[in-house]
Sequence to fold (491 residues):
Amino acid sequence: MTSGHRPLPELSAALARGELSSADLVEDALARVDAWNRRLNVFLHVDAAGARAAAAASDTRRARGCLRGPLDGIPYALKDNIVARGMPATCGSRFLAGFVPPYDATVVERLRRAGAVLIGKANMDEFAMGSSNEHSAFGPTRNPHDPERVPGGSSGGACAAVAAGMIPLAFGSSTGGSVRLPASFCGVVGAKPSYGRVSRYGLVAFGSSLDQIGPIARSVEGAARALQVVAGEDPRDATTCRAPVPDWVAALDEGIAGLRIGVVREHLGEGIDPVVRDRVEEAIRVLEREGARVVEVEMPHTRFAVAAYHVVSGAEASSNLARFDGARYGRRADRVADLEELYVRSRADGFGDEVKRRILIGTFALSAGYHDEYYGRAMKARSLVRRDYEKAFARADALVSPAAPVLPFRLGERLDDPLAMYLVDALTIPANLAGVPALSVPARPTGDGLPVGLQIQAPVLEEARMLRVAHAWERVAGLGALPRLVPGEAA
Ligand code: GLN
Fold:
């Protein structure tokens, strides 16, 4: 077992006891990336020299007895839409190939301050638009559990890196499920905090009323520790909330006795793979045995969520992506006659088909004469989804459902059918529309060893409760199964 397969808290403890050095962890991570990256296409950029230097600095701090906390010396990866000073950031797009940002995202700054060691940047769907990682301009990431299948998206590289034991921690972004969906497909823990919990300064914006950064780790405690470090108000992101960040790790062991767990009937019915349903029902029975009280709740408007999301996120994306015009960042078409041609050619050559589709949908939804019919109605549907949550949380303390309606599918299976691809997010999108925290923790895998994700949602700013429920399940079920990566296949 490589160190990347050991959960983060175990590695922190081993570092603190002096059994391992940060340099060991980094060498292990680099060797694992070397062995598997060609096959899985997880990392777009690896900074071996930077990581070695940061690890050496951490080991010196340890020797002097001045560690900066539980993440000091721990290697991690970033989805390639979160910027780190001096390290390429492509967002999975040809448009940004060669772009090197001159500053750190707030999460990166906080992780640096905590002593964590950045290894590199992980593959993703272009500009975070996708559910399978197949929309990356740099080729799809493959699922470590079965390389013929997708890892989920859009934070597919970040989740596959953790699942493949390359690193114990990664950060992704979620606009409609891009942390939970790939976490569920890869058999790792992925959390989307409440809207406003984590600063998006330095995250390349997709849908600004929806975007959140979230941690990915093998265990719930690992995710909690990582979230603890990056959460909290940031003057550089006006949407961050002032609420103090509670001690999430300390709250993990409080148990779930007496907690009301809401089961959304609509989310276990039609359109859900029977194996997924079976595994989630099994987890619900376990939570009941652990002392929770199971109640049924209704969320009748979540059936509008996917449609509303694509209008709202498309509208916001069409505006956010206007900055990629050939004049400022990355790609610039050459030999153009005028400014108009610079815009047109840079964007036509730089963006992939899915991104163009989103920009077109969004621009249309905002265009004069159609604004009320599309954007206005989508916002009304969003309010109805929010109200569903308010009602559900009046009866239940947390909600449990599948993270995804389907199992990890084969590469190419949904690529020509955008609607089939969009529907994979049906159960994750509602939490983004409402701003509530939600995570995916591995349920018991299928008979063939494919991961299944259990989604747990809680009211706004109640991450502690969400993590507690996930931890209660994980204590009984154990961590997600490791993939059977056969060394001979590495080439
Ligand atoms: N899969 C969804 C989409 O394609 C969500 C993406 C995300 O959360 N970044 O828009």
